[in-house]
Each structure stands twice: as C-alpha cells, then as structure tokens.
Write a structure and sequence with these properties.
single chain, 3 helices, five-stranded parallel sheet, about 20% helix
Length: about 180
C-alpha cells in the first residue's frame, strides 16, 4: 500500500513540475521519475526513465527504461581553450549545442560525467565515477576515467534477440513478459 501511495505522489509531482521543465526547453514524460535537485536544460526524457538526485543534464535525449544514478553530469559547455580566453563572455567559440543520446535501458552509475555529443548504445552500462568521451556500442560495459570497454553484457545471439524484441517500446508489464521469455 505504501508503495502505491509513494508512486502516486511521484506521479503528481511530475505533473506539477511539467510547466517548469517546459520553460527550460525540456520534454519530460509524466511516467519518468526525476529526483530532487536535478537540473534539466533542453532535454527529452522518455517514459519509464529514472534520474537520481543532483544530476545536471544539458541537450540530452534519454530513451525508455534508462536509469541515471545521483550526481551525474551529462552534456554541458566545452570551453574554447584554443582561443585567447575561455570565458563565455569573451568568446563565441564555446561549444554547448551537441546532443547527447542515452539509448533505451542504459544504466549510468553515480558520479559519472558524459561529454556532450556522445551516444550510449542500447543497454550500455557506465560504471561509477567514469568519464565517458566516446560513443559506446550496444550492451557494452564501460568503466574508468577516461572510460574503457570492460566487456559486453551478452553474446551476439542474445543481443540480436533483445534488439528484435523492441521491448522498450512497450509498457512495463508487456516488456517484462517479453524479456522473461527471450532466453
């Protein structure tokens, strides 16, 4: 009973926050859960996404069922170190408009930093406190600073079965049923 009440409260909080998110150029599904202290700017957040506390996301698209832990930074301005000044007041060469894409069912652990313009492949995992500065293939696990490929979560056959299922386009009940029957 407490879980249902808690879910209802979070759902209504998301509805109340919608106008504030829109003012900052965001599109956030009412089925996403965004925790306290998180700042979003020009982001598109799909249904069933979880974003932990105190995250900063700029120009980011996050697909269904992805989870972002607390204290994660995604996107953000890259200062023009090659010009006479790095200040955004003195140069127009700073880069801030590249879009970062987190594919469906990714897990980004606590304290990670993801450079702007990066794409995480379907089902990718980024280990805690990692710095990601390159695109990741589907179902890969990356760790470290800078992040390096640790391993793949599944063999090629299972990866293909998961891709073909396209469970991320379904509601949680149907998606769960498909995933339980994939092996």
């Amino acid at each position: 009973m407490i879980t249902i009440i808690k879910q209802l409260i979070l759902f209504f909080l998301n509805i109340i926050r919608q106008p504030l998110w829109k003012l900052r150029g965001n599109q956030v599904s009412i089925h996403a859960r965004i925790c306290k202290g998180t700042l979003l700017r020009n982001c598109k957040i799909a249904p069933y996404v979880y974003i932990g506390r105190n995250c900063i996301l700029n120009n980011t698209i996050i697909d269904e069922y992805s989870s972002i832990a607390s204290d994660v930074q995604i996107g953000g301005m890259e200062h023009a170190y090659w010009t006479h000044s790095t200040s955004h007041h003195l140069t127009s060469y700073n880069i801030e408009s590249n879009i970062t894409h987190i594919s469906a069912d990714c897990w980004v652990a606590a304290g990670c930093i993801i450079k702007q313009g990066i794409s995480l492949g379907l089902g990718s995992v980024l280990g805690a406190n990692s710095f990601l500065n390159k695109n990741t293939p589907d179902f890969s696990i990356w760790v470290g600073s800078p992040a390096r490929l640790l391993k793949y979560r599944f063999d090629d056959e299972l990866q293909n079965k998961i891709r073909q299922s396209q469970y991320w386009q379904l509601n949680p009940k149907k998606a769960k049923s498909i995933l339980q029957n994939i092996y």
